[in-house]
Amino acid sequence: MEFSSKLIEKAVNEMSQLPGIGKRTALRLVLHLLKQPKEQTGFLSQALVAMREDIKYCNNCHNISDSVLCEICANQSRNHQIICIVEDIRDVMAIENTGQFRGIYHVLGGKISPIDGVGPSQLNITTLVEKVKSGSVNEIIFALSSTMEGDTTNFYIYKQIADCEIIISTIARGISVGDELEYADEVTLGRSILQRVPFEKSFKNN
């Protein structure tokens, strides 16, 4: 792709680094920004810089937050004795959109995947185990995607807390095997939360 401006070329190259954005789409976005008032482009750049510099991670659940505690963990009307374990912020948003869960979350920051070089030590597992062993948790719900990596992560965590006297459940398999949580429709995902099953039953039946 030939560019008449090095500035445009650089902007397109940077934009095309985003997931799902090819060079042609990047060019279309850059030209759109070029047509907007300078103030509008300034607002966008300021928002991105502020997000990158000021974003925090919740001290309790590792969710993305504007402060040391995210809004969910800071909400005293939530049931802090029920923890839903998810991979990342997208899954928190997906479950929250169902309006069916009133506990809190624990964001792992990924899934165990030896092929990708991701081991348990690179995820937020230790803090979860500490919470469970502190005695402040009645139930944990596994809500990772139905993939080999998701099941491996579930089982690893289960082995770490199997001796604790808590309920260990997993979302019902209303979510197709291999599907990511964020792409599930709200009704199906909501039912999967409400109809969760004991975790031991989930892997003994496989």
Automatic annotation (TrEMBL):
Q: Where is the Toprim domain?
A: 81-176
Q: Which is an annotated Pfam family here?
A: RecR_HhH
Q: Per its record, what are the GO molecular function terms?
A: DNA binding; zinc ion binding
Q: Which SUPFAM superfamilies match?
A: Recombination protein RecR (SSF111304)
Which keywords, in A-to-Z order, does the entry hold?
DNA damage, DNA recombination, DNA repair, Metal-binding, Zinc, Zinc-finger
According to its UniProt entry, the protein's GO biological process terms are: DNA recombination; DNA repair
Matching Gene3D superfamilies, A to Z? 3.40.1360.10, 6.10.250.240, RecR Domain 1 (1.10.8.420)
Zinc finger (C4-type) residue ranges? 58-73
Indicate the family of this protein: Belongs to the RecR family.
Q: What does this protein do?
A: May play a role in DNA repair. It seems to be involved in an RecBC-independent recombinational process of DNA repair. It may act with RecF and RecO.
Protein known as: Recombination protein RecR
| Species of the source | Flavobacterium yafengii
